[in-house]
Design goal:
With 459 residues, the chain is mainly alpha-helical. Helices cover 60% and strands 5% of the residues. The longest helix has 37 residues.
């Protein structure tokens, strides 16, 4: 006869392979703190409502403290026969507190218990991730403060387009990760819902005080529908979705750092402590941190596909498929945390080659739009001005020159509106300084943006 906690209905022991296949302890053992925290609150509520005695609750709460210590001291051997963290905790509680431990599960199911555990866990991790992202934002702002007036090529289609400030480029990522933080903050609201008391799917006949349990566990609200409470994994899907977007932002930055650190660009040097070498080529210095972050983005996006696929056709309420929610969640949390942490450290150890960036702006006709703007200010319609600037580029290409190198006579063959002041107008510094529209790369604009961000971050 089975000795499982649910074994009363069964006449045969579980097949050994099924037992191993069915168990989740290898994954969910990391939820032990959340599980014990939830159980302590549940016991206090049961005692408050006289469902168990206060003495029984005190014995069990003290026993749970001992179980926690034993887990943290690696004194408990986890076994597939006990399936999950809930049954391990309850079994060990029986060893330290006696038969009264069998009252621990009064008025609840593993269905609402695991929903609670994951929510407690994820609330804490979301807070940690937000803190890590704020630290990373500080690194971006410090980089912008360190190189406030450095001019670099801005790109579209990976082709040189117009000059921008390097600090402006860093602040673009600041804005990206600001949105990520806002998304995680929003996700936290939907994670911060207390499901305990929904039991298996229909609620329970015991007079549970769910509001009191909510207060003890510091949740903002109690879930309103027992079926939804045990089957809702939206908050996990939402979290991994937001994490995927965040990782894509890291991946985009990684791509740029990989390019910028190459000999072809030579815009930056990443410190030796954040790079690696080659086993065969002595000269190599590889941007492996950026490349690994770029690669790990695929893992997180894959985790999103995994959880969406698990949930896509499940009927209400709990289904065993949902046991598969924790591996993608835990892997996403771990991956995002280490990527954010290592990026924060790496960014503070990057040297920017300011002259190289500036020199790159001198080639590729990055001031062609400004030549068109110059003609517009002289009274020419923009479409005509665009065409004249295009012909100027074509002529300069043929002469193997940049626009700045054309003589006044060559300019005036294209338009008699062009005067000697054109050279100052299309100078690199001037093209940047004139980008004064809100959010543009003008010196004063970026200075204000960096100052505002520094204030938001307390720098």
């Amino acid at each position: 006869m089975s000795e499982k906690l649910w074994g009363g209905r069964f006449s045969q022991d579980t097949d050994e392979l099924v037992e191993k296949f069915h168990a989740s302890i290898d994954v969910d053992k990391r939820l032990y703190e959340s599980d014990i925290e939830g159980s302590i609150a549940h016991l206090k509520m049961l005692a408050k409502e006289s469902i168990i005695t206060r003495t029984e609750a005190e014995i069990l709460i003290k026993g749970l403290g001992k179980v926690k210590e034993k887990i943290e001291n690696n004194e408990i051997k986890f076994s597939a026969s006990l399936e999950d963290i809930h049954m391990h905790v309850e079994d060990e509680l029986g060893k330290v507190a006696g038969d009264v431990a069998r009252k621990l599960h009064t008025g609840r199911s593993r269905n609402d218990q695991i929903a609670l555990d994951v929510r407690i866990y994820l609330k804490s991790e979301i807070k940690t991730i937000i803190d890590l992202l704020v630290d990373f934002q500080k690194s971006l702002v410090r980089m912008a403060q360190k190189y406030p007036d450095v001019i670099m090529p801005g790109y579209t289609h990976l082709q040189r387009a117009q000059p921008v400030l390097f600090s402006h480029h860093m602040m673009a990522y600041y804005e990206m990760f600001k949105r990520d933080i806002e998304r995680f903050e929003d996700c936290y609201k939907r994670t911060d819902v207390m499901p305990l008391g929904a039991a298996a799917l229909a609620g329970t006949t015991f007079p549970l005080n769910r509001e009191y349990t909510r207060e003890l566990l510091s949740f903002s609200k109690v879930s309103d529908n027992s079926l939804d409470s045990v089957s809702d994994r939206d908050f996990i899907m939402e979290f991994i979705s937001h994490a995927s977007i965040c990782m894509i932002h890291f991946s985009r930055l990684s791509e740029e750092l990989v390019l910028w650190s190459s000999s072809e660009f030579a815009f930056i040097t990443i410190a030796d402590s954040f790079t690696t070498g080659s086993s065969i080529m002595p000269q190599k210095k590889n941007p492996d941190v950026a490349e690994l972050v770029r690669g790990k983005t695929g893992r997180v996006v894959g985790n999103l596909m995994a959880i969406l696929t698990v949930m896509k056709s499940l009927p209400l309420a709990y289904n065993k498929d949902m046991q598969e929610d924790k591996e993608p969640l835990f892997d996403t949390v771990d991956t995002l945390k280490i990527c954010t942490d290592v990026y924060t450290r790496m960014l503070d150890n990057i040297e920017v080659h300011t002259q190289r960036m500036y020199d790159a702006c001198k080639q590729g006709f990055l001031n062609a739009t400004d030549l068109a703007d110059y003609l517009v200010l002289k009274g020419m319609p923009f479409r005509h001005a665009h065409a004249v600037a295009g012909r100027a580029v074509a002529f300069a290409l043929n002469q193997k020159k940049e626009l700045n190198d054309l003589t006044l006579e060559e300019f005036r063959e294209l338009s008699d509106l062009i005067a000697p002041d054109v050279y100052e107008f299309i100078a690199i510094e001037k093209t940047v300084a004139r980008r004064i529209s809100h959010g543009g790369t003008g010196f004063q604009n970026v200075k204000q943006a960096v100052s505002k961000a520094a204030g938001e971050l307390g720098l």
